[in-house]
Amino acid sequence: MGHRMNIERRDFLKSLGLLGATTAVGTTAMAHPRDVRAAVKTRARIVIVGGGAGGITAAAKLNKWLDGAQITIVEPRETHWYQPGWVFVAAGVHDAAWTTATPNADYIPRGVRWVKDSVAGFEPEANKVLTQGGETLEYDYLIVATGLKLDYAAIEGLTRDMLGRDGLVSVYAGPDQAAAMWTEMQSFIQKGGDGLFTLPHTPLKCAGAPLKMGFLTESHARNAKRREALNLTFNSSIDKLFSVKPINDLADRLFRERGFTMNYQHRLKAVDAERKEAVFATPEGDKTLHYDFLHIVPPMTAPDVVKHSALAWKEGPFAAGGWLEVDKHTLQHLRFPNVFGVGDVNGTPIGKTAASVKFQAPIAAENLVSLIEDKPMDRKYDGYTSCPLITEVGKAALVEFGYDLKLIQTFPLVDQTVPRWAWWALDLYAIKPLYEQMLKGRIPA
Ligand SMILES: Cc1cc2nc3c(=O)[nH]c(=O)nc-3n(C[C@H](O)[C@H](O)[C@H](O)COP(=O)(O)OP(=O)(O)OC[C@H]3O[C@@H](n4cnc5c(N)ncnc54)[C@H](O)[C@@H]3O)c2cc1C
Q1: At a CB cut-off of 8 Å and minimum separation 6, what does 151 contact?
Q2: Of the listed 213, 244, 387, 396, which one is catalytic?
Q3: Within 10 Å of residue 344's Cβ, how many Cβ atoms?
Q4: Domains of the chain as residue ranges with CATH
């Protein structure tokens, strides 16, 4: 075991050596052409709605590449959420503060105006947004980066405040609920019983996280020698676990090897917290399962303010969720050319990760600058997304792919889909510092 770990650690160090040359999860040694060119002079008014991963990164890029622009970010929250870290909080590796300790003020670039408010309405025909507090912000260019809505209310009998106690948990709900999940997980492992894990039927951010939480619970139970006290079931709303077939097959195989019952086309529709029962819609009708521990991954949609605006898709596969109607390559709105989208809110086939934001934010920003310059928009997003798929405590597969759903190998010397300590360590130690560099606009794409 120790010998194996040493080999993996050596592999990891080799891999990190390659990190300097990679364009995927790491930074490149080469500067982006715009970073070395003189900034474009303009008086353009740019409003960015949402100051999460996408909004802050786009602001950092535009702030560098433009000279004289008035850039405004609208973001109500004081503290930045490093959401990928919540998985480590829920698994007892870090406390909640590790993911949230940074005030947003540290990331908002100097010279960018921060309106600490929420946007309550979009009026793209008039080039303005309205805030909750009653301010009207007029713009020449708009970037929508609001992230998405976790629709817990779509599950009958469930409200958000029920999460984090009595065996009802969700790593997605926020840093405190992630911390509560760790407490609940330990209690479940100690007492034993029925553990249910869910995957929704809608697009979701970090499609690996629902799987990670199943694997981590099982792994902790095994390490505590309590595995036989647990009856674990994974319930996917659809006919698969993951969009890329080799990763889907890997996850399904590992779950079965570890004694999970696998249910497909089981969509969580209701929770009865008193009776500790979860109701699933299945092709054969409703099915009720008892739980002692229920990990809920809710359906996800665009935030209501986007969904009910002129900016949302009105037909096609992204209309039901009210996702932002953008061209999947240029990230420009299909009906309002001075509007761009970055991050989870985009109605694109895939791309709801921070790793996608790393590419989307500079591409949208660069295309916006090209529009200001009246030049062709030649930057295209290829759907790149990535997620270290944690398969047990101390091991992960490194999964990267694009719109074509073909796996990408950033580290050519090793098969990234084989779970190893190196990818766990990359996720735990390297991704957060890289993410922070991304927010500061220091990672070219
Ligand atoms: C549990 C979990 C694990 C994850 N793991 C990974 C991972 O391993 N790898 C990975 O790459 N990604 C991962 N992600 C996904 C990643 O965090 C998101 O894809 C990323 O944060 C998306 O950035 P965004 O800017 O679109 O949205 P966010 O970062 O969510 O930011 C949206 C911002 O918009 C603001 N906002 C919302 N509505 C309004 C409004 N009306 N007006 C003004 N502001 C508004 C919000 O306050 C928020 O700050 C994970 C996410 C979760 C929850």
Answers
A1: 202, 298, 299, 300, 301
A2: 387
A3: 31
A4: 2-149+301-385+427-439 (3.50.50.60), 152-297 (3.50.50.60)
Q: Which residues pair with 49 in a beta bridge?
A: 74, 144
Which residues in the chain show pLDDT less than 70? 1-31
| Residue 52 CA, ligand 1 centroid: distance in Å | 6
In this prediction, residue 24 carries a pLDDT of: 41
Helices 354-373 and 53-65, axial angle in degrees (round to 10): 30
Report the alpha-carbon distance of residue 77 to residue 117 in Å, rounded.
8
Q: DSSP label at 300?
A: E
pLDDT at residue 36, as a whole number: 78
**Residue located via tokens 């698994």:** 91
Please give the distance, rounded to the nearest whole angstrom, from the Cα atom of residue 311 to the centre of ligand 1. 19
pTM of the model: 0.94
Structure tokens at 148: 């998405």
Q: What is the pLDDT of residue 37?
A: 83
| Centre of ligand 1 from the C-alpha of residue 416, in Å | 25
pLDDT of residue 444: 78
Choose which residue among 94, 205, 363 to substitute to test ligand 1 binding: the one with the highest number of ligand atoms within 8 A of its C-beta.
205
pLDDT for 9: 47
Of all atoms in ligand 1, which is nearest to the CA of residue 345? 26
- Listed residue (100, 174, 147) closest to 300, CA to CA: 147
Which residue ranges have their beta carbon within 6 Å of ligand 1?
49-55, 74-77, 83-84, 86-87, 118-119, 145-147, 171-172, 205-206, 209, 303, 305, 343-345, 352-355, 357, 386-388
Tell me what pLDDT residue 412 has.
Answer: 87
Q: Which of 120, 200, 217, 216 is nearest to 158 (CA)?
A: 200
Cα 366 from Cα 380, distance rounded (Å): 10
Indicate if 387 belongs to the active site: yes
Q: What is the pLDDT of residue 30?
A: 56
Q: Residue 147: is it exposed, middle or buried by C-beta count within 10 angstroms (0-12/13-18/19+)? A: buried
